[in-house]
Amino acid sequence: MKGLFTGAIARSAQAGRGTGRYLATTLRLMVGVPDYETYLAHMRANHPDQEPMEYPAFFRERQQARYGGKGRIACC
């Protein structure tokens, strides 16, 4: 019986972490903070031959794109 509860607690905690990550990503996007992990996954999947930007450069580029920097850098 103990194993049954332990498994249920572990599954519940794992589901909570997934929900927490989803909520954090949603909140970041709502306030304009870019999601670096999504960018890295995109670069690995679509541009494996290119080196991804470091986080500070990525953040600056996203801020410029959102709030009107000098020229917009687009991908795909």
Briefly say what this structure is.
By secondary structure, the protein is mainly α. It is built from three helices and no strands.
Give a structural overview:
This protein is mainly alpha-helical and 76 residues long. It folds into two domains: 1-31; 34-76, no CATH class. It is built from three helices and no strands. It is flat and about 45 Å long. The chain starts with a helix and ends in a 9-residue tail after the last helix.
Pick out its properties:
YbdD/YjiX family protein; 0% strand; Sel_put; mainly alpha
Q: How many helix segments?
A: 3
Mean pLDDT: 76
SSE order, one letter for each helix or strand: HHH
Oligomer description? single chain
Q: Largest sheet at a glance?
A: none
- N-to-C span: 53 Å
Indicate the topology.
Blueprint: H1 2-31, H2 36-46, H3 55-67
